[in-house]
Prior knowledge:
5-stranded antiparallel sheet, 3 helices, 26% strand, binds calcium ion
Amino acid sequence: MRTLILLAAVALLPSLAYGRPILYQATATTRSELEPVIDRFRQDIGAGGINNGLTPGPLESGWREVNWDNTGTLLRDGAGINIPGSGLLMFPIVGTRLDLGGSVDVAGLGDFYDIEQSYRLEFRPYSDPNQAAVVSQGSFDSGNLTALFYTPGTTYDHIRSISGFGVVFADVDLEGAATLEFGVHGGFNTAPFKAPAAPGNGNYSFLGVRFDAGEVFTIVGIKPGNRGLWPGVVDGMLDEFGRRIDLVSIDDVIFAEPKVIPEPSTLLTLGVGLLILGPTLARLTGLACCGNRCSSRFCQKNR
Ligand SMILES: [Ca+2]
Ligand SMILES: [Ca+2]
Ligand SMILES: [Ca+2]
């Protein structure tokens, strides 16, 4: 039976149709330089709507933003990080953590100075006071994050789909060190899209990706630099294999209103994907997925 399901999944997955992704990319040293591109991205993914803030969804149009400011202590549920009501859950790789810098910048030494002194003024928040970075002792790509979406204003409602997702990164020195990729639970279906490099200290790079052909994407893979922050790990140094380390922080995350996943064909594909690939996600995130619902604790019945 498992073999049949696997074959079915292989047959169905290529049938997903993807339009041409629309990229929004810019680099800047100041917020005012970057904001016009981000505004255009907001308007395009918002489809005539507004910033929906924490208004309960799903709504017909508009977008959502997470800027890590005024979030208090990040809520951790399972292995994930929840900005209450936002519709966004983020999962660092197990064993790593997400650090908000602003709370430790008490001496004007810059965020994350408490982790490693060479980070002095390396990372600047795009919106004050907080930005986020993965703290990880691991090797290359141990700082990756997975984002998934639920109905804003609820507590982990059904899995939702988004048609656009963008991030403001800080201190992308190398092209390809910060990327976004899109998929359904357990598997990515796009190639990684690269944030443009902005060498120096603390410069901003924005990457937004929008899809306009009705694609269903329920997860986004975020690569914020090729390694996590850690004492002794210095931005720009070579690792033991001669690879240049590029540490990157993330600030404003902007995404289209999470939508109900259309039925039936796409949901069938997603459902099969969950059957086959859900356990992979569960291992990575501690999340249990049943049908089109995921929970941090246990499987729930489909509604
Ligand atoms: Ca911020
Ligand atoms: Ca740098
Ligand atoms: Ca860097």
